[in-house]
């Protein structure tokens, strides 16, 4: 069986997860990791070549899909459109407010070079997006709600770490339980962003840093914290490692509504994840398979989970899918 050749761009928690996830798929092979750090300083969880980011051009024609594992705040807005000029890609861009802008840039770059870019792949955006579109179409009279957590948000934690004076940080997204129960009771409440979630930040500051400035920058950060009740705790590096070293997450998509005859319905899709990056990595790998297959059929440009048929995700043949899964 010819294997799909994968490259990994960026090697943090997500990159390590991609390497593990690819190993679980018999049709995948990780060819190389590309990093902006000194390759000699990058210890991979499984043996693989580590190359400089600038040297990925040497792998054109040798890699089928690049999986981009950088952060949405500053990495992916630049890297996705840059890398798709050389390779097919998937990324996990998760700044919901900037999805249209990211899509437009990726579409332009991919079309110009005949590549295919899968974007905003993961569980939200990603699998939760699919739940929202399917639930809404199936139950047209109703309301859809998304709750995240309690769990560590990689993107939000990364955004905090980019603030001057921050050494490390974890950010927890916490659902407001009373709001969730109102939805499950079928009340169909109108909830503001602030009424659905709170955000808890645990921050290790550099010695001598201005804590008041850091807290203000966090709470006022658009698209991340400005619309939420946010609590900032400054803690030691030892406490962060002891109490906040894991990366759990999860959440729910619900749609509450009724039929034309007035019967009540509740649709719910939930995830409970011991490791947010490892699960996201598994989704990225499945969609890398889809991007590879779709590009082989001639598809170019940018695509999201809305554009990718489930059959492309599964390693089974279409005949096997119909027999075993339909």
Structure write-up:
With 326 residues, this protein is an alpha/beta fold. The protein has 11 helices and 14 strands. α2 links the parallel β4 and β5. The longest helix has 21 residues. The radius of gyration is 21 Å and the shape is globular. The model has no long low-confidence stretch (mean pLDDT 96).
Entry summary:
This protein has 326 residues and is α/β, with parallel strands linked by helices.
Mean pLDDT figure = 96
The helix/strand series, from N terminus to C terminus, equals EHEEEHEHEHEEHEHHEHEHEEHEH
Structural class: alpha/beta
Question: How many beta-strand runs?
Answer: 14
Distance between the termini: 25 Å
Discrete helix count: 11
Uncertain runs with pLDDT below 50, 5 residues or more? none
Biggest beta sheet summary: 7 strands, parallel
How large, in whole angstroms, is the Cα Rg? 21 Å
Report the principal-axis shape: globular
Strand content: 25-35%
As a percent range, the share of helical residues equals 25-40%
Q: Strand order, main sheet: write it out.
A: 3-2-1-4-5-6-14
Relevant terms:
about 325 residues, alpha/beta, 7-stranded parallel β-sheet, 4-stranded mixed β-sheet, 14 strands, about 35% helix
Task: Show the helix and strand layout.
Layout: E1 4-9, H1 13-23, E2 28-35, E3 49-52, E4 65-68, H2 76-83, E5 88-90, H3 99-113, E6 116-118, H4 127-138, E7 142-148, E8 151-152, H5 154-161, E9 166-175, H6 177-184, H7 193-196, E10 197-205, H8 211-219, E11 229-234, H9 237-243, E12 249-258, E13 264-273, H10 276-296, E14 301-303, H11 318-324
Parallel strand pairs: 1-2, 1-4, 2-3, 4-5, 5-6, 6-14, 10-11
Antiparallel strand pairs: 7-12, 8-9, 9-10, 12-13
Helix pairs in contact: 1-10, 2-3
